[in-house]
UniProtKB/TrEMBL annotation:
<feature type="signal peptide">
    <location>
        <begin position="1"/>
        <end position="22"/>
    </location>
</feature>
<dbReference type="Pfam" id="PF07883">
    <property type="entry name" value="Cupin_2"/>
</dbReference>
<dbReference type="InterPro" id="IPR013096">
    <property type="entry name" value="Cupin_2"/>
</dbReference>
<dbReference type="InterPro" id="IPR011051">
    <property type="entry name" value="RmlC_Cupin_sf"/>
</dbReference>
<feature type="domain" description="Cupin type-2">
    <location>
        <begin position="51"/>
        <end position="105"/>
    </location>
</feature>
<keyword id="KW-0732">Signal</keyword>
<dbReference type="InterPro" id="IPR014710">
    <property type="entry name" value="RmlC-like_jellyroll"/>
</dbReference>
<protein>
    <submittedName>
        <fullName>Cupin domain protein</fullName>
    </submittedName>
</protein>
């Protein structure tokens, strides 16, 4: 009887820890849909433009881009968390910009969000690079 009770307590503890951790994790945002890329004449760079859709409370994990970008919020709201700066909430109709290599997280509000962005990158290189804590 004591063995069953111990196993039940252990299982309950594991399950409650799992659910607590899952509740803290925001859903991941979808990958940005690239709409267009064009070469920047006289350089080895290209500009890109894309749309990103975020489910409610979804986020793009901590990362940095290899080039600058500007983002316009079409729908909902985005919270931008740049390392070393206060959080910035941007509502539909607003925009924000990020310098190359700004380490940041972007999170959608409770209604989700949709953004359109333009960026400068090096052709053939990954634009966003994950940055662990």
């Amino acid at each position: 009887m004591k063995a069953y009770l111990s196993i039940s307590i252990l299982l309950a503890g594991i399950l409650s820890a799992h659910f607590a951790m899952a509740a803290d994790m925001a859903p991941a945002a979808k990958a940005t849909q690239v709409l267009q890329r064009i070469r920047v004449q006289g350089t080895e760079r290209e500009m890109g433009m894309g749309i990103a859709e975020f489910a409610p409370n979804a986020e793009k994990p901590r990362h940095k881009a290899i080039g600058p970008e500007i983002v316009y919020v079409l729908e909902g709201e985005i919270t931008v968390l740049v390392d070393g700066a206060p959080a910035k909430v941007v509502h539909a109709g607003g925009s924000y910009q990020l310098a190359a290599k700004d380490v940041h997280v972007t999170k959608a509000g409770p209604a989700g969000a949709k953004t359109i962005a333009s960026w400068v990158t090096v052709p053939g290189k990954q634009f966003n690079v994950f940055v662990p804590r």
